[in-house]
Design brief:
Layout lengths: L1 H11 L3 H14 L4 E7 L5 E6 L24 H7 L8 H8 L1 E7 L6 E7 L2 E3 L11 E3 L4 E7 L6 H5 L4 H18 L4 E6 L5 E4 L6 H9 L1 H6 E9 L4 E9 L9 E6 L2 E2 L3 H14 L7 E8 L20 H21 L1
Parallel strand pairs: 1-8, 12-14
Antiparallel strand pairs: 1-2, 2-7, 3-4, 3-7, 4-5, 4-6, 8-9, 10-11, 11-14, 12-13
Helix pairs in contact: 1-4, 2-6, 6-7, 9-10
This protein binds adenosine-5'-diphosphate and magnesium ion.
Length: 338
């Protein structure tokens, strides 16, 4: 049965970068203002994430990695909206099925923290003696430190499928960078364990615009134009905002960051629509930068998206995309005529 669970978990957590995405979202949900990621071998050997959020109460540790254990369903409407992210209460469970996972956590104001080890969804003895599976008292900072070692140690086929730790590290940097752009009040760092230099490092209390400059380059920062914020109630759009360029900023590729309801998502259709808009604005062969954040009534976001997919769908999709792309077009036009 564990093999089945391990394979299922490896479908949800396919690689370090998407484990990190889940862990970042948990830290953000916990109200953190500082999130530090460090990795060995691009996360294949070790993923560590320290936040300064709410912490986890000792009583909640035994069931932390139980599938579908979530603290985030409070009322019926929540159930609807929570499903928009495809799965709830499965991230930590899945990570515990495909790695050697541990948690050190302390709730602010408590005098002592707790350390707990997990395998296959359950608390285990961390080899610290005593044979007890209970969480152990531990020195800890306020917040939560989650470690996942030896990712896919028990799923050899998956383990073998990775090209290189460097490639995995770049994918992680990409995810952390995008969350840092979207959460400018939170200080993020991402580095290789045991090194001093961080590849991503943002201050707390920044702005989206200055984080884009910091992370994607000053040259881009100078070109940025603000989209919105606007509201389109009839389409359930509570907010559209973003930053885009009206110039070719890169030698390599276009960059598209899309957040819907504060989750990093993909929308193939939105991307295509934005790209075709840009071909009208930019000389052939040049590249665009778009960061867009949409808040959509959660009840309109498709509940049937498979957990492994970042691809998102929503009600009145074509109209919503048309509206958003029009906002971008308006921004570009205003800039060109002023
Ligand atoms: P979900 O986020 O869908 O609830 P997860 O498996 O990602 O499911 O997390 C399970 C639960 O563990 C969360 O609901 C939350 O209560 C708790 N949790 C996870 N990570 C953290 C964290 N960094 N800080 C505080 N609580 C956390
Ligand atoms: Mg989660």
């Amino acid at each position: 049965a564990d093999v089945v669970n391990q394979i299922a978990a490896a479908e949800i957590i396919h690689r370090p970068a998407n484990a990190i995405k889940e862990l970042l979202e948990n830290s953000l949900d916990a109200g953190s203002t500082s999130i530090k990621v460090s990795l060995k071998d691009g996360g294949l050997k070790l993923i560590q994430i320290q936040d300064n959020g709410s912490g986890i109460r000792k009583d909640d540790l035994p069931l932390l990695c139980e599938r579908f254990a979530t603290s985030k369903i409070r009322k019926f409407e929540d159930l609807l909206s929570l499903h928009t992210y495809g799965f709830r209460g499965e991230a930590l469970a899945s990570i515990s099925f495909v790695s050697r996972m541990s948690v050190v956590t302390k709730v602010k104001g408590e005098s002592v923290g707790w350390k707990a080890f997990y395998r296959d969804g359950k608390l285990v003895d961390g080899g610290q003696g005593g044979g007890l599976e209970d969480p152990k008292p531990s020195a800890a900072n306020d917040g939560t430190l989650i470690s996942a070692e030896d990712l896919f140690y028990n799923v050899p086929m998956r383990r073998k499928s990775f090209k290189s730790p460097a490639d995995e590290y770049n994918r992680v940097l990409d995810v952390v960078t995008k969350y840092a752009v979207h959460n400018p009040k939170v200080a993020f760092t991402c580095k290789k364990a045991g090194t001093a230099q961080a590849e991503v490092s943002t201050p707390s209390d920044s702005t989206t615009r200055s984080n884009i400059s910091l992370l994607y380059g000053n040259a881009l920062g100078k070109e940025l134009l603000q989209v919105g914020p606007t509201i389109h109630k009839s389409l359930g759009i509570e907010k559209v905002e973003g930053w885009v360029t009206n110039a070719n900023w890169s030698q390599k590729r276009s960059t598209f960051l899309l957040f819907i309801n504060h989750r990093l998502v993909d929308s193939y259709k939105m991307k295509k629509a934005a790209e075709s808009l840009y071909t009208a604005y930019l000389p052939k062969g040049s590249f665009a930068f778009l960061y867009l954040s949409l808040e959509i009534d959660p009840a309109r976001v498709d509940v049937n998206v498979h957990p492994t997919k970042q691809e998102i769908h929503f009600l009145d999709e074509d109209e919503v995309i048309e509206t958003v792309v029009k906002e971008v077009a308006l921004t570009l036009t205003n800039a060109n005529t002023s």
